[in-house]
Automatic annotation (TrEMBL):
Gene3D superfamilies: Amidase signature (AS) domain. This is Glutamyl-tRNA(Gln) amidotransferase subunit A. Keywords: ATP-binding, Ligase, Nucleotide-binding, Protein biosynthesis, Transferase. Belongs to the amidase family. GatA subfamily. It is an enzyme of class 6 (ligase). Transmembrane segments: none annotated. The lineage of its organism: Bacteria, Bacillati, Bacillota, Clostridia, Eubacteriales. InterPro entries: Amidase (IPR000120), Amidase_CS (IPR020556), Amidase_dom (IPR023631), AS_sf (IPR036928), GatA (IPR004412). It comes from Alkalibaculum bacchi.
Amino acid sequence: VVQAYLKRIDDVEDKVNSTLKIMGEEALEKAENLDKNGIQAKGLMGIPYGLKDNMCTMDVETTCASKILYNFKPPYNATVVEKLEQAGSIVLAKMNMDEFAMGSSTENSSFKKTHNPWDIDRVPGGSSGGSAACVAAGEAAFALGTDTGGSIRQPASFCGVVGLKPTYGMVSRYGLIAFASSLDQIGPMTKDVEDCAIVLNAISGHDDKDSTSVVTEKKDFTNYLTKDIKGLKIGVPKEYFQEGLNNEVEQSVREAIKVYKDLGAEIIETSLPTTEYALSAYYIISSAEASSNLARYDGIRYGYRAEDFDGLVDLYKKSRSEGFGSEVKRRIMLGTYALSSGYYDAYYKKALQVRTLIKEDFDNVFKTCDVILSPTCPTTSFKLGEKSNDPLEMYLSDIYTVPVNIAGVPGISIPCGFDSEGLPIGLQLIGKAFGEDTLLKASYAFEQ
Ligand code: GLN
């Protein structure tokens, strides 16, 4: 199996460019060991996967697609890597991403641009663009991505794969290089919903090493893959179908609503009134947390260090100026500004208050609905370079995904059709906190 995927990488990688490091030898060695031990193929045993390069792999470069982490080889594995290893799965490659997971197109990587396998002149989405593209191109059986404001669901939507952002606290973040700690979650990116459930089984659960991971009842998510969704109450928020939504995307999502009706679900028109404030709150909160998290890259302890400098402060300045890319610098400045005395109350504190209101919006809708349905993204994949000089335009593509991270609830993107140019369209389903079982059930019923 590993050989077959390596061959596939060999065949298509020059067009897709999804990997930052292919771990072919290590992967083959692991596979041979499994073969030798005569271990029975079941579940994820022997199944190769792609790992977004912001998750630590012991003694193997972990770059976050940033120059600042130059030559950083973590002395430990992320918990998700350990868990997948225990399940017998094999890391095949570290995947390209936007630097520090900041972006929506993977064009912010310091190393290369990944192409959408459906049309190689287009972006795969981001920031987990390498992970989405590798699954879509058949370069790995599945991948792990991370989602702070949509980075699993949006690229899944652009590449026609399934992407789940679990409830905050469902999957350990230990060994995930932080972007915005109160929003970041790791999740599966897979060919279909069943694979998603299998991978979620393997990576979820409490971890002593992450104090925000939650003790939950252990569930086998594959048990929920039944087609029976009769009576399921699906909320359709009107704010997610307004200006900015592409016609063909809207049409396709409306078709999906019909499919759910035919399956016996009850469709409820509903409202999330604070949606219009979500993007502003997200970009303040995430940038504030990023500015604090990224303060550790000082050119001293590890990673990139400038060569010519004049004293300590100059070393910090030059290492950070040369090591970080422009989007990361923009977020650090934005975040530092929002946290600075005099502006804290007006921006950061206000954003936290909005966060509470957004969460209340979701709580209200979930009083009457089991899941919420919407488009994942206002558009399908755009051309490489089309939005890279316009950060605000790029931020707008996160409009339907960021509220989910702000509220901490789970969200999944599943393929629901194609536009007239043959590009995949994604349908988003949002669940109650720790309602992954219902979410997967509803996704599976649609997929069938
Ligand atoms: N596109 C969003 C951003 O740039 C989301 C990123 C993410 O989820 N990691 O912040």
